[in-house]
């Protein structure tokens, strides 16, 4: 009866984690979301049961600690902790680094918002739930990263945009390595995992933002000629789950793709 906690599960891939895991009724599936009522309504309308939702905001360590106390009333341990939530924005993603010369305030604002969720939020999440992971059997912590944080991929595909997202997620990868070193002797595996490219955009995007997305897609296609475009969310989750199940303690701290290697697409 494995237990899973997905932090940042309200929509996109996080929601698909809940959907996918809930299908096996022997799983204990817990989603940490900012707005429980809204997500519960979505689960109900999609006829998804076997999911517990608890309130938690990745920028608020106390809310995550409170969520952990609630988790302990549902299950005595967490086998798989998946820190999925992220601050992502298309607002500044299309700019080259030097274009921030006249946008310093915008850059700082974006960087701090991203830092709060993608860096500090990861530390807060792991620290809040680690006592329950220690009690688990699988003892696996996965932080969702991105191939956009891989230096070689950036150079190969000429990706000069997404400065904030890429650099904050690169910091996330280092956090994973630090936890891996600390927790190795306890048999806890920590992984930074890129999910591939999946279209999870729910809100309308401006023409300028769409242009930026198209430029990025073109670069990915040129840099990785075999790539055929975004994958369905369910496919990504199945691939991620396989990597998480197969990763060993010897590999702890690694930064891998949904293929279990450095092939990001
Ligand atoms: N989609 C892709 O192609 C892709 C590619 C590479 C990596 N990734 C990574 O995969 C993960 C999921 O991506 P996605 O496309 O599903 O993202 P998404 O659609 O933008 O969803 C982001 C999720 O994070 C949650 N979140 C944001 N800030 C939060 C906070 N402070 N506290 C708690 N939850 C918070 C959001 O909840 P709210 O609804 O409350 O905002 C939402 O559930 C992310 O880590 C992303 O960086 C995605």
From TrEMBL:
InterPro entries noted in UniProt: NAD(P)-bd_dom_sf (IPR036291), SDR_enzymes (IPR052184), SDR_fam (IPR002347)
Top-level division of the source organism's lineage: Eukaryota
Signal peptide: none
Transmembrane segments: none
Example of a GO MF term: oxidoreductase activity, acting on the CH-OH group of donors, NAD or NADP as acceptor
UniProt source species: Glarea lozoyensis (strain ATCC 20868 / MF5171)
Coiled coil: none
Protein name per Swiss-Prot or TrEMBL: NAD(P)-binding Rossmann-fold containing protein
